[in-house]
Write a structure and sequence with these properties.
Blueprint lengths: L5 H6 L7 E5 L9 H12 L7 E5 L8 H11 L3 E4 L5 H12 L6 E6 L2 H5 L1 H6 L7 E6 L1 H8 L11 H13 L3 E4 L8 H14 L3 E2 L7 H8 L3 H15 L8 E4 L2 E4 H20 L1
Parallel strand pairs: 1-2, 2-3, 3-4, 4-5, 5-6, 6-7
Antiparallel strand pairs: 8-9
Helix pairs in contact: 2-3, 9-10, 11-12
């Protein structure tokens, strides 16, 4: 949500999203940055319930970054989103800055340039040195623009790049959020992209309009059948007679203990959805 749009910001605490990103960067014109910071400070002081309060600042090399950091000291969001991250050094440097005044704020990074794709592994690995770095957000629009790539509805040309980012994030235990879908009136195309991202293993999707929330929630939430199957796996491994077994046969399917971990994760998601509804 643009921090310059107070009408949009007012809706944030009531939207059925997991996180609300208040933006000081691309969606705010240079001459509106100062007022946007005032708006962001007021907005971040509201009660967002279960929703994470995330502040997207301007990039570290911009003339606006120092003032954004000063705002962070006051606002204390749940996470700060860094745009245009191209190296691990950026994560390490911002972590050092944040550590001087806040131990709890998380660090999210937007990977949206060709250098970010090339350096994805080292960027993701920096979480070992900076535990507050928890989440990667894909900037697919900027990636495609910088590459001069024409991206169709199936994203077939972009997918190899996305999978490099996905692999790096998964290797180091980071959440990774698929990029935005610009045409919020194209419901069918949006749903297909959500399903594609979920199938790829994305943790979720960034959105640009409230009308996209329900579709994203549906795509990234376990279905009733998924939950029932997960519960069946958990119950089967919990039986005393199965305590020492690594593999079970459930309804004609071989199920290993790695599937138990996946089932527990599914049930955890389902419980969190239930608690937040």
């Amino acid at each position: 949500m643009p921090a310059s749009n107070t009408r949009a910001l007012a809706k944030g605490p009531s939207l059925n999203a997991d996180a609300i990103v208040i933006d000081l960067e691309d969606s705010v014109a240079p001459n509106a940055k100062a007022q946007a910071r005032i708006n962001a400070l007021a907005a971040l002081g509201q009660n967002y319930g279960h929703r994470l309060r995330v502040l997207r600042v301007n990039d570290v090399d911009s003339d606006f970054f120092a003032d954004d950091i000063a705002l962070l000291k006051q606002a204390q969001p749940d996470a700060v989103l860094l745009p245009k991250v191209e190296s691990a050094q950026t994560i390490i440097e911002v972590d050092r800055i944040l550590s001087a005044f806040n131990d709890s704020v998380k660090l999210w990074a937007m990977l949206e340039t060709t250098k970010a794709v090339v350096n994805a592994n080292s960027i993701a690995q920096s979480t070992e040195q900076c535990p507050r770095f928890t989440t990667v957000c894909i900037g697919n629009n900027d990636l495609a623009r910088e590459a001069g790539m024409q991206v169709g509805s199936d994203r077939n040309l972009l997918i190899p790049w996305l999978m490099q980012l996905l692999l790096a994030a998964k290797a180091y235990g980071l959440d990774i959020l698929d990029g935005v879908y610009n045409n919020f009136k194209d419901i069918e195309g949006f749903h297909l992209e959500c399903e594609q991202g979920a199938a790829m293993g994305m943790s979720g999707k960034t959105l640009i309009h409230p009308s996209q929330i329900d579709g994203a929630n549906k795509a990234y939430s376990p279905s009733a059948a998924d939950i029932a199957q997960a519960q069946q796996i958990v119950d089967a491994f919990a039986l005393p007679e199965h305590a020492g077994l690594g593999v079970l046969q459930i309804n004609g399917r071989m199920v290993e203990r790695l599937h138990l971990d996946m089932a527990l994760h599914t049930l955890d998601i389902a419980e969190r959805i239930k608690a937040s509804s």
